[in-house]
């Protein structure tokens, strides 16, 4: 086979270019530290690297969400800690207000501090986060959750939503709590009312407002209420408890008790988790009713009606009710005692609700901490796999570059010699 001079030249140049390209590529791998410079170098590894980079980007977004969730929950926890501190002080003031030796001026002084604490709580419950959104308004981040009305009562303006952030492929963590579930859905210990339906001549009996002090035992309380019926003289201090509306002449009493002979010492009737204070001296034949809702007795006809009373009461409304009772100069010691008893129980329920919310936040913060650790571990493994797929074996690359350099030099020298071969040189 005959090879033309042009073909020989072209083959020589192509060989030099090919060997130069190989050496240059190896030098570029060494300078970058990467084995794969283009997808064509290793298609399978390139696809895997792309998947790992996408996973790394997702982990970075999860880490950002974890940081945002942690900041939000930490702020909420700090706010609830402050709320709990204020409630502890309010409870101390309520205990002081229950002292029967206080005069109206002393009660007004306590009511003044209660008013300040009430404003402080309102401010805490309307706390905003760094984005200017209200912490306790549910999904309505731009709506102020708690608003005070003209009559001094409070209303919740947010919703019952709970904002969440995705912190893992299948894990969403709540980063907020709505104010209704924490501060408004507090069991109302004063959801019952009492009144004397019958008051004989000469009777000084007084029945306090009922207090639900044991929620578990209250499950056995008749849904329609009860009535306390005192025996006629001479056994007028003995009473029986019947289900409201029952025929007391034939019905079996649900409970029986007797008032102490000391008229100055109040007696406490406890039935199905409900506590009732009995004061004064009965004349015999009195009938007191304890019913759900607000009890109204028509003294002319003896008709008993009930108005609505909420089973739940907000913490702010509890404090406001106690404050107004202390501010009213016409409130007697018995009414103050009832207001303090209800307030103390409702405050305890409110603090339990706040503590439960704080416990939930602590649990979420623990989840965030473990998820961050898991994400860091996954990211570390991810980077290790990427390194195995992408990074260069320097020892192998340097050895290969040395051989490619030798081959390139040999090709260049061969080309020079071949290029010098010509028939004209022989004919000279």
Automatic annotation (TrEMBL):
Matching entries from SUPFAM superfamilies are given as: Phase 1 flagellin
| Keywords recorded for this protein, A-Z | Bacterial flagellum, Cell projection, Cilium, Flagellum, Secreted
The principal location of this protein is other
Pfam families for this protein: Flagellin_N
> Origin, by domain of life?
Bacteria
Where does this one sit in the cell? Bacterial flagellum; Secreted
Q: Which InterPro entries match?
A: Flagell_FlgL, Flagellin, Flagellin_N
Domain Flagellin N-terminal residue range list: 3-139
PANTHER family of this UniProt entry? Answer: FLAGELLAR HOOK-ASSOCIATED PROTEIN 3 (PTHR42792:SF1), FLAGELLIN (PTHR42792)
Query: Belongs to which family?
Result: Belongs to the bacterial flagellin family.
State what protein this is by name. Flagellar hook-associated protein FlgL
Gene that encodes the chain: flgL
């Amino acid at each position: 086979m005959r090879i033309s001079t042009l073909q020989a030249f072209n083959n020589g140049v192509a060989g030099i270019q090919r060997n130069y390209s190989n050496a240059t590529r190896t030098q570029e791998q060494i300078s970058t530290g990467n084995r794969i410079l283009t997808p064509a170098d290793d298609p399978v590894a390139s696809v895997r690297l792309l998947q790992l980079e996408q996973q790394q980007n997702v982990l970075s977004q999860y880490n950002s969400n974890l940081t945002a969730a942690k900041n939000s929950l930490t702020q909420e926890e700090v706010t609830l800690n402050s709320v709990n501190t204020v409630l502890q002080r309010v409870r101390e003031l309520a205990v002081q207000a229950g002292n029967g030796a206080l005069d109206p001026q002393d009660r007004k002084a306590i009511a003044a501090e209660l008013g300040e604490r009430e404003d402080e709580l309102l401010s805490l419950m309307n706390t905003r986060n760094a984005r200017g959104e209200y912490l306790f308004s549910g999904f309505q981040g731009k709506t102020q959750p708690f608003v005070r009305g003209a009559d001094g009562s409070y209303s919740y303006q947010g919703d019952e939503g709970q904002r969440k952030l995705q912190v893992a492929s299948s894990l969403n963590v709540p980063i907020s709590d709505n104010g209704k579930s924490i501060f408004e859905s507090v069991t109302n210990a004063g959801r019952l009312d009492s009144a004397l339906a019958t008051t004989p001549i000469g009777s000084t009996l007084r029945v306090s407002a009922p207090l639900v002090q044991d929620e578990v035992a209250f499950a056995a309380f008749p849904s329609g209420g009860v009535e306390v019926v005192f025996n006629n003289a001479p056994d007028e201090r003995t009473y029986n408890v019947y289900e409201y509306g029952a025929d007391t002449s034939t019905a079996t009493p649900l409970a029986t008790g007797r008032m102490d002979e000391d008229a100055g010492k109040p007696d406490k009737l406890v039935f199905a988790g409900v506590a009732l204070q009995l004061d004064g001296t009965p004349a015999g034949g009195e009938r007191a009713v304890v019913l759900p809702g607000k009890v109204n007795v028509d003294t002319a006809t003896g008709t008993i009606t009930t108005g609505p009373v909420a089973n739940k009461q907000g913490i702010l409304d509890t404090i406001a009710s106690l404050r107004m009772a202390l501010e009213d100069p016409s409130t007697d010691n018995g009414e103050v005692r009832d207001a303090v008893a209800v307030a103390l129980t409702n405050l305890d329920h409110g603090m339990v609700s706040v503590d439960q919310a704080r416990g939930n936040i602590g649990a979420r913060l623990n989840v965030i901490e473990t998820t961050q650790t898991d994400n860091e571990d996954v990211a570390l493994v991810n980077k290790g796999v990427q390194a195995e797929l992408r990074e260069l074996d320097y020892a192998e690359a340097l050895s290969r570059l040395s051989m490619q350099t030798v081959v390139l030099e040999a090709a260049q020298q061969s080309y020079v010699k071949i290029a010098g071969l010509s028939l004209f040189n022989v004919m000279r």
